[in-house]
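Dock iron/sulfur cluster; give full complex structure.
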Amino acid sequence: MSAFSEYFKGLFGGIGSLLTGMRVTLKELFTKKITQQYPENRKTLVISDRFRGVLVMPHDENNEHACTACTICQTNCPNGTIKISTKTIETEDGKKKKILDEYHYDLGMCTFCNLCVITCPFSAIEFSNEFETSVFTRGKLDMRLNKEGSKLREKKVAPKPVAEKTEAKPAEETQAQPKAEVDKPTPASTDASADANVDNKE
Ligand code: SF4
Ligand code: SF4
């Protein structure tokens, strides 16, 4: 190929490339804009129910939760995000009983894999779709999920069937468990010294 034809080949190639770029620019110029004006649109912002924001432990109006402190979620968590401490109490009939003392969850460690929620036999934890979780210190990402003074729900929640426990379900199903009131978990750094007065009625 002569230098002459190479010159024109390069020239027309460049013009073609320029026209392609101009076509994309012109198309975007007249496309409807969909800019989200966050955070001004907080009231109308729609966050999917399936979004895994923060792990929470729902408490009902009597400040009761469904966690039996079985530690299955802690065992199944792949990176040590969950730390459960228990305490032993004496029941009315004189028997010793292990109950939940503090349930800690480190948002900074969580990979949002949902294994803890899927494997909990009592549907005691779930993911909220809270997404504004920025803090200035890592310590505030360590949250205590069981509220101070909370206790195990008197009406015992029936364990999930074995098939449900082992099969991974879509997130929307795991979110669809009967929901009690969900409050934001409190950073552990603010109440780490507080004892949970949890009373097991089993
Ligand atoms: S959250 Fe569920 S799996 Fe974890 S300790 Fe409580 S009852 Fe057991
Ligand atoms: S979502 Fe996964 S990483 Fe996060 S606490 Fe649960 S099991 Fe652990």
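Observed: The pocket of iron/sulfur cluster (ligand 2) is lined by residues 55, 76-79, 81-82, 110-116 (CB under 6 Å).
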